[in-house]
Amino acid sequence: MNDTALKRIMESPQLPTLPAVAVRVLELTSRRDVELGEIAKAVEHDPAIATRVLKTVNSSFYGLTRRVGSIRQALAYLGLETVKGLVLGFSLARAFKGDDEVVFDFAEYWRRSIFAASAARSLASIVRLGDPDETFLAALIQDVGMIALWKHFDDRYLQVYDLAAGSHDGLAGFEQRHFEVDHAQIGAAMLEGWKFPSHIVDVVLMHHLGTEVAAQDEDMRRIVLLGNLVAESLGPDSDRAQKALQQYEELASIWFDLRRGTAFAALTSITEHAGELARMFDIESSSCPDVDSILEEADRLRRANRIATPATEIDENIDGLTGLPDRTAFQKDLLDVFESESEASILLVGIDGMRELNRSGGPGTGDAALIKVAEAVTRTCREAVGESAKVFRFVGAELAVVMRGESANRVQMLAERIRATIRLAPLADDRIGLTKLGASQGIARRMAATDTPDELLRAAMMATSEARRNGGDAIFAWGEGEAAAIAA
What we know:
By secondary structure, the chain is α+β, with helices and mostly antiparallel strands. Helices cover about 60% and strands about 10% of the residues. The strands form 2 sheets. Strands 2-3-1-6-7-8 form a 6-stranded mixed beta sheet, with helices on both faces. Strands 4-5 form a two-stranded antiparallel sheet. Strand 2 (about 390-395) and strand 3 form a beta hairpin.
């Protein structure tokens, strides 16, 4: 990110502004001693917003058994975060709405935002992590920086937007190349200026960074990322929609242990709620996606893939960047461990500072770091424990090592050797010079016959997250319901 470019845009007179009622509500809710009456009074100063809040609160979206007649009652029944989220959502919809003369695609912007927000709220409720209404708000406002970039650069931004050819994930990269800043960074700066809670600002900042980084509230960020995949899977591009649907299914399972049936069943209610929200927000929406048809196509593709010839199966399970077996191969190996009732451990190795590497040297630098670490981990495993360890490309900047029949001490010894090897093998890159690498490692050991592959993997992921939270370049092991430091 170029700080000068960010500052120039943030000082632009064209920057969108937040309505007074939203500013006042944010100010009040940042106070610990605020009274509900003060918030109710602030909302009621804007009759249009207050009316929409009450209309939404009394809709089937919230399913209250009795009618709410005032903002104060809404606060009492649904809580502060719910009402705050609605006020800010309606304020943003009013502030960032197009007219007949603009050429920015507000219809697609709000379609994506509404579907992502509806999905995020539903998924947060299903997995019971965090506040569903805060998660809804984070998903709704995550792309506000796009409007700021368009306001500042006008047609130039629309040209860059067209270069992405409908790929929202690819858009941030084009923005960085042309403007040295992307809409996630701009949006986070705007929200920080508006005094949004820091964990929501953090989620907006990191919503295009993938799994190589962890946010203050990583659960919220991952739910928002799933919401984005739902929005993509319900979009107009069939091929892109099916790829997003597959990613949604895989990540929902890995991150939150959501089974395919549960993850897909949520899509129908998400679609219904999104349509209702669009009406409440007074946003024109296209025809409702046919979820049944989308899922039928997913099943057809799944069956077609199963009929694929065995000759291509090996190639399909190899990661193109590192040459390691990929996540699918890892999941198969993990299932085989449990089916054979073998003693086993998982060691996850996540490269630290990947965001800084990509920011300093570009995406190619991060890829070079991942390749170098993959080679180091593979070599160390082979030298230390031979064939009892297999190395896989997991997700993002993480590798997975499955060890069979080794003691806890041997697994820890291997992790420490991997840590030392990575430290002693700096990355030589033409763009940023010689760079020392580090990795956060998480260990989980199969402790009982009742453990499942998902439980074991989740334990390793939580240990890795704890290693990152403790500054990185550390090793944590999961046991007895918590992560303990092995080396930090």
